[in-house]
Amino acid sequence: MFKTLGILGTGNMGRAIASGLVRSGLMQGNQVYLYNLHPEKAQRLADELGAVRVDSAKELLERSEAVILAVKPFIMPGVLEEIKPYITSGKIMVSIAAGLTLSRLAAAMPEQTKIVRVMPNTPAMVGEGMSALTFNTYLTEAEKEAVVAIFRSFGKAEVVEERLIDAVCGLSGSGPAFVYMFIEALADAGVREGMFRPMAYTFAAQTVLGAAKMVLETGEHPGKLKDDVCSPGGTTIEAVKSLEENGFRAAAMNAVIVSAEKNKTL
Ligand SMILES: NC(=O)C1=CN([C@@H]2O[C@H](COP(=O)(O)OP(=O)(O)OC[C@H]3O[C@@H](n4cnc5c(N)ncnc54)[C@H](O)[C@@H]3O)[C@@H](O)[C@H]2O)C=CC1
Ligand SMILES: O=C(O)[C@@H]1CCC=N1
Asked: pTM, whole model, 2 decimals?
């Protein structure tokens, strides 16, 4: 494992990664360096995790073996230009920016920079992230394993061909937002039927968590698990018919597809 890791940008994703990583115990807080344009944001997170806030991108690069760039895609060109002079040989650059390909990243870095492109998601914050990683040719096997271990410390992580990163963006990168909307809608209906809000959110979220665990842990086809809930002539099949009539599956598929397509244009 790396002795030191830098995170540039401590917003939604930088915070989720730093928190997940330190809480998993894979790295100690004092091995993790944080830099944010707004120092108070980095300081707050550093205080929470026992991590170290640094004052500049230069210092972050100088003190870290590997650096995760966690700023919005439109900020990335400026950040890449700013850090380029400090990318010494052997330094590992990890980008989580939507849309930025390995070749575009490489074009902005010194030649032969070791580059990793990752698409993570925010449930990293609670140790249930889903990340896909793709590497350029300059990392050693041990370095690749160390980067994968970081993303496995707060969830599942798979190495994929770069062509699949857009699909991953649509499915697991954006997916949490769709699931939160689904949870909100389930809870709204619970409230409509008389539940109090806190109860409705707990019942909705636990139902999604339980169903997700059933898929992951039983290995059964989701269709079979759905069939098991539907009693003949019962309540659930009535609701399944309603979802089908309202284009539920097509809506969910289209959400993933438009996110993936957008990722190709950023
Ligand atoms: N939010 C999500 O669910 C996911 C986001 N991503 C990617 O992660 C990246 C970061 O996204 P978020 O965390 O949502 O953004 P964010 O806006 O929440 O966080 C970025 C942070 O970087 C700071 N910052 C801005 N310019 C800076 C600079 N020049 N130097 C240092 N810090 C600077 C901002 O103050 C902010 O705190 C994006 O490229 C996005 O595509 C990838 C997967 C999921
Ligand atoms: O909306 C976005 O651009 C980022 C990428 C995946 C999730 N959020």
From this structure: 0.96
